[in-house]
């Protein structure tokens, strides 16, 4: 059974940084696409970043791309999302997810989800 456990969320002031972690079990992250999505209150879940089995990365095309970095530690079977220069509009629940095959940008394309971790950025 695949399980994804996120951690690292919290409250941070605008301009600050956080690093989210996603510990995976039941699936080797080196063989699957791993992604991060976020969902703000009243909004749809949206793609943030993903890393494929081969290590290729993709980010949202807006300002996230220049501030966030997705990475992985295969030995720890853990995926990370380093978030710098955080803005109040980054406030959301961040979810780790995984899928077989290549990258897709919509939530329904993913197989398993973590429980989410709250990120709150104060102005």
Strand residue percentage: over 45%
Largest sheet: 7 strands, mixed
For the secondary structure, the number of strands is 11
User: What share of the residues lie within helices?
Assistant: under 10%
Number of DSSP helical runs: 0
Compressed to H and E, one letter per element, the order equals: EEEEEEEEEEE
Overall outline: globular
The CA-CA distance between the termini, in Å, is 40 Å
State mean pLDDT (0 to 100 scale): 95
Features:
123 residues; mainly beta; 50% strand; seven-stranded mixed beta sheet; globular; 11 strands
Question: What is the secondary structure topology, with strand pairs?
Answer:
Elements: E1 3-7, E2 10-13, E3 18-25, E4 33-39, E5 46-51, E6 57-59, E7 68-73, E8 78-83, E9 92-99, E10 112-113, E11 117-122
Short account of what is shown:
The chain is mainly beta. It has no helices and 11 strands.
Architecture overview:
The protein is an all-beta fold. It contains no helices and eleven strands. Strands 2, 4, 5, 6, 9, 10 and 11 form a seven-stranded mixed sheet that branches. A hairpin with a 5-residue loop joins strand 5 (46-51) and strand 6 (57-59). The radius of gyration is 13 Å and the shape is globular. It starts with a strand and ends with a strand.
